[in-house]
């Protein structure tokens, strides 16, 4: 009798508790198998391209080969001229005409960090009938003299950036506007050479300068395919090879294919370099500026 009662109580508890346990479980969907398959399939972006989503901590690679249509401006003095001689203007030497200059950047990203290396390789030469007089090194010239001038400037920039703020896409966004802000720091190494020739006389000076640089970069991605960025930086070094600079870049990028794009923008790099004293003084102050355009490859 007791055994029969116990079995009856157990049966009642089973009938009461079993539905409540099932109520806590998600209801089985007839399309569960197809949902799982859909989640595991590649997702499609708004531009119709399929891609494999990445986590924020994955490493990404971006290469930006470009051409910089840059012109030169400023004033130059090289060692060998008397201490009181003024600097010569770049436009008086006819070195100010823009020229296509190879340039490029390489970026590695993971999480909020960016590791980059950039550079450009500027070369310009011109033969000019001088409209003014002056002296460059040991070469003195007067109006009407023919002077051949050559200038080269190779620049290398290793930097590290850190993203301090960004806006992630929201479910209700009709069009994605995703701004972000990054700070960066690093170094710039400038290898500079000026050469001047009048008749059989030649004057040349080669200098290498290093400086610490830092700045901020803001950018905005628009609708998966477009982006705009603005970067402002400054740097300097107070040693015997004195240097300081400021740099501003604004660019626009279009990616018709997810991992391949094109870009166009403007860059203005102002620099001042000094070394030596008196007759051995080297001094150049000026800007290299102009439009740039190129490709973007990333994966």
Fold topology:
Layout: H1 2-23, H2 32-40, E1 43-44, E2 50-51, E3 60-77, E4 88-89, E5 99-110, E6 113-129, E7 134-136, E8 139-141, E9 146-166, E10 177-198, E11 201-222, E12 226-237, E13 242-257, E14 260-275, E15 282-298
Antiparallel strand pairs: 1-2, 3-4, 3-5, 3-15, 5-6, 6-9, 7-8, 9-10, 10-11, 11-12, 12-13, 13-14, 14-15
Short summary:
The chain has helices at 2-23, 32-40; strands at 43-44, 50-51, 60-77, 88-89, 99-110, 113-129, 134-136, 139-141, 146-166, 177-198, 201-222, 226-237, 242-257, 260-275, 282-298.
Give an account of the 3D structure.
The protein has 299 residues and is mainly β. The protein has one domain: OMPT-like (Lipocalin), CATH 2.40.128. Helix content is 10%, strand content 62%. It is elongated, with a radius of gyration of 32 Å. 20% of the residues are buried. The N terminus is likely disordered.
Task: State the separation between the terminal residues, measured CA to CA.
Answer: 76 Å
Q: What is the C-level CATH assignment?
A: Mainly Beta
Class inferred from helices and paired strands: mainly beta
Sheet having the most strands: 10 strands, antiparallel, barrel
**CATH homologous superfamily annotation:** OMPT-like
Low-confidence region ranges:
1-53
CATH level 3 topology: Lipocalin
**How many whole angstroms does the radius of gyration measure?**
32 Å
| Overall CATH architecture | Beta Barrel
Helix content: 10-25%
The count of strands amounts to 15
Could you tell me the strand content as a percent range? over 45%
């Amino acid at each position: 009798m007791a055994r029969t009662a116990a079995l009856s109580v157990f049966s009642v508890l089973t009938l009461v508790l079993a539905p409540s346990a099932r109520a806590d479980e998600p209801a089985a969907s007839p399309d569960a198998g197809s949902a799982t398959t859909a989640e595991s399939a590649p997702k499609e972006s708004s531009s119709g391209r399929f891609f494999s989503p990445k986590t924020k901590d994955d490493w990404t690679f971006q290469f930006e080969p470009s051409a910089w249509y840059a012109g030169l401006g400023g004033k130059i003095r090289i060692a060998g001229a008397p201490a009181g001689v003024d600097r010569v203007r770049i436009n008086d030497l006819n070195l100010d005409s823009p020229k296509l200059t190879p340039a490029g950047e390489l970026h590695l990203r993971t999480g909020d960090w960016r590791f980059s290396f950039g550079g450009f390789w500027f070369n310009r030469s011109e033969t000019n009938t001088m409209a003014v007089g002056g002296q460059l090194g040991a070469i003195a010239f007067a109006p009407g003299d023919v002077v051949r001038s050559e200038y080269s400037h190779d620049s290398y920039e290793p930097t590290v950036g850190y993203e301090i703020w960004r806006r992630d896409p929201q479910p209700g966004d009709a069009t994605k506007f995703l701004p972000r802000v990054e700070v960066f720091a690093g170094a710039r190494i400038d290898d500079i050479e000026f050469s001047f020739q009048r008749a059989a006389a030649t004057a040349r000076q080669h200098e290498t300068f290093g400086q610490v640089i830092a700045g901020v970069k803001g950018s905005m991605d628009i609708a998966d395919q477009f982006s705009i960025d603005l970067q402002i930086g400054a740097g300097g070094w107070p040693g015997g090879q004195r240097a300081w600079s400021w740099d501003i870049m604004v660019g626009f990028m279009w990616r018709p294919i997810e991992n391949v794009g094109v870009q166009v923008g403007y860059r203005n790099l102002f620099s001042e370099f000094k070394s030596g004293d008196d007759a051995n003084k080297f001094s150049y102050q000026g800007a290299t500026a102009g439009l740039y355009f190129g490709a973007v490859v990333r994966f």
